[in-house]
Amino acid sequence: MIPIGRLGFDPIVPWPVLAGLALLLLLASGAYVWRGGKAPLIRLAGLALLLLALTGPRWIRESREPAADIVTVLVDQSDSLRLAGRLEAAKRVGDTLAQRLRGDANLTVRVQEIEADESGTPMIAAVERAVADLAPERNGGVIIISDGQIADPPPNGRGIKDAGLIHALIVGDPARGDRRLKLISSPSFAILGEPMRIEAVVEDPVKGADVAIVVAIDGAPAQRLRVRAGTPFTIAAQLAKRGANLVTIEAEAGPQEISLANNRAAFQATGVRDRLRVLLITGEPFAGARVWRNLLKSDPSVDLVHFTILRSPETYDPTPRDEVALIEFPHRELFEEKLDQFDLIIFDRYRRRGILEYSYFENIARRVEGGGALLVVAGPYDAGLDSLSRTPLAAILPSQPLYAAREKLFRPAISAIGARHPVLRGLPDPDNWGRWDRLIEANATGGATILTGGASPLLVLDRAGKGRVAQFWSDQIWYWARGHDGGGPHAEMLRRLAHWLMQEPELDEERLTLRATPEGLLAQRATLADQAEAVEITGPDGAITQLALNAMHPGVWEGLAPLTAQGIYEARSGARRAFAAIGPLNPKEAAKLSATDASLRPIAQASGGGVFFTGENGAALPEVRRVAPSGRAHGANWLGTRQNGSFTIRASSAQPLGPAWLWALVGLALLMWAWHKEGR
Q1: Percent of the chain having pLDDT more than 90?
Q2: With bands split at pLDDT 50, 70 and 90, how would you rate the model's confidence at 487?
Q3: CA-to-CA distance for 252 and 128, rounded, in angstroms?
Q4: Of 46, 251, 465, 572, which is most buried with the most CB atoms under 10 A?
Q5: Rounded CA gap, 160 and 640, in Å?
Q6: Same domain as 443, residue 308
Q7: What are the pLDDT digits (tens) for 631-655?
Q8: What is the DSSP letter of 410?
Q9: Under a CB-based contact definition with an 8 Å cutoff, are residues 252 and 235 in contact?
Q10: Which residues make beta-bridge pairs with 522?
Q11: Strand partners, 611
């Protein structure tokens, strides 16, 4: 404790009133002197004593305890330091500096670690928070330890208001070069089969260097090219599947590299089809002819071309051709000229009556094997010689009729493999489905029979080349649409069937997905197998873990892996791969990794502080000194912290310097003496 004595006041009237009176008395005294008064000093002394009586003078004794100044050390622990291998160096600089500062008993040191958010390192916001609760008279200064890559520099290089003295210690070598790939523009979606435009640039210390670029989609290389550093380049890439696609662009390592993390840029693009074109051929008018038409017309992404054959070629009609209202079946245009424009072809209760030539069926088979889709809904004629199975389509059909129609009530049932198939998975209990009364008996020689009618297949699915095929061995699903015998899930079943045929990725039988949840990283495996093998998870840091999966539903297996860091995770199950991006795909922290003082130097200079480079290992530390509040705060190899001299009053007592009436009485006596001298 330090005892201190000082003069204090306890005014009888407010200080503004006293100030007004003092001004008035000074003016009066000035006028008195100007007019030649004989006792100016005596009169002025009397007036001063009258004012002193109003101020209540007293002698104050205090016991003061010196208050330690507070120095704040902010240590950048963001991804830019981690990726550049400087994280431990920054921690070491912070620990060493804090230890030196704590050697002064009159200093309190506060150390805070600053993490990055999606926008980068909010260092200036951290400084403002750190000094918000500090009294200015106790702020000894702020020391920033960073690589200089901050997200929120003040505009126009201005300093930070009310932050006090700021020093910056830059970890790293500003002369060390680094190659990075910068994404200029990228699409969020693209139409399948059409090129999407990607624009990027490689920034390299060696301008004009020749750089190899690899473009990958969902981990599979899609394009390779060579570009010149410093010159923007354009990539035209095509998406191969619908839904989410992870596109990565990676530049080869350069001669100077701080980290390879910023040699890659990534974005997600959604693959969409322009329009799905469906050709529906109804063999003859019947009660269920509108089921498929209504389903397909209700889908806004589908363009439907529908023909119903109302008469056979051998039907005689004497009506002149120019008076017939019906449209002639354009078989040559559909099955030769424009067949490749259709994604799905449906024969609904079609009867082979010589309308279509054998070459047309050969064209359809080639279209399916090239990536199209075919659905055959059997009618009563498929039990005889008019079946489509007696055409070249038989080469791609997974089942053949036994040329017998069973016309008695049966309830469609889901097979064991059908319960795991995405077309039927999760549908309502089949025990409550309505019954049908016609089934064309068939023998399935391939594919997957997912619906049965007793011992005979009812719905058979298969792949043919790059395309897909489905056979429905009954034409009575319209019973469910009418609610017959309780109805059934016809709309959902047919919607899934159509989308499975058109190769929607969400309906693939063998599928692997990876996505982030609040609980962790969820890997989901859909399969027709009885068991799903473990999934291999590769993290952003390259660490590989084996994730065992648990059965959640028939055909669906899931596993939950912990999230260890932000970045791109990859899941592998056999030949299948899936990706999930946690956090920003191209974090700003990874964009620039070079050590720089460009943002922090203006801030430090505006506060009177200095900037020091510590090197890659953080070994070059400046000396620490205490400086006066108005003194110079840094030199070539030293930095200073403010010595404010603040204190805390632990005890205080006050004693009046005489009664106020005594000071007033003496003042009046002096005024009376002045009047006496003036009257002589």
Answers
A1: 38
A2: very high
A3: 41
A4: 251
A5: 18
A6: yes
A7: 899 998 999 999 887 756 666 767 7
A8: B
A9: no
A10: 515, 560
A11: 168
CA distances from 328 to 30, 333, 355, 436 (A): 121, 11, 11, 34
Which CATH number goes with the domain that contains 163?
3.40.50
Asked whether residue 468 falls in the same domain as residue 537, the answer is no
74 phi-psi bin (left φ>0, alpha ψ -120 to 50, beta other)? beta
Mention every residue, 6+ apart, whose C-beta is less than 8 A from residue 408.
437
Q: Mean pLDDT, the chain, as a whole number?
A: 85
Q: Which domain holds residue 155?
A: 68-176+594-645
**Token output for 265:** 């840029």
Distances (CA, A) of 120 to 80, 123, 540: 9, 9, 18
Q: For 35-144, where are the alpha helices, taking DSSP H only? A: 40-55, 79-83, 87-101, 123-131
Nearest to 341 by CA among 321, 311, 363: 363
Handedness of CA 538, 539, 545, 550 (dihedral sign): negative
**Number of domains, the chain:** 5
* DSSP state for residue 179 in the 8-state scheme: -
Burial classification of residue 94, based on how many CB atoms lie within 10 Å of its CB (0-12 exposed, 13-18 middle, 19 or more buried)? buried
- The letter for the amino acid at 380 is P
- Residue owning tokens 């106020």: 660
Q: Tell me which DSSP letter residue 446 carries.
A: S
Residue 302 lies inside a defined structural domain of this protein: yes
Does 484 share its domain with 355?
yes
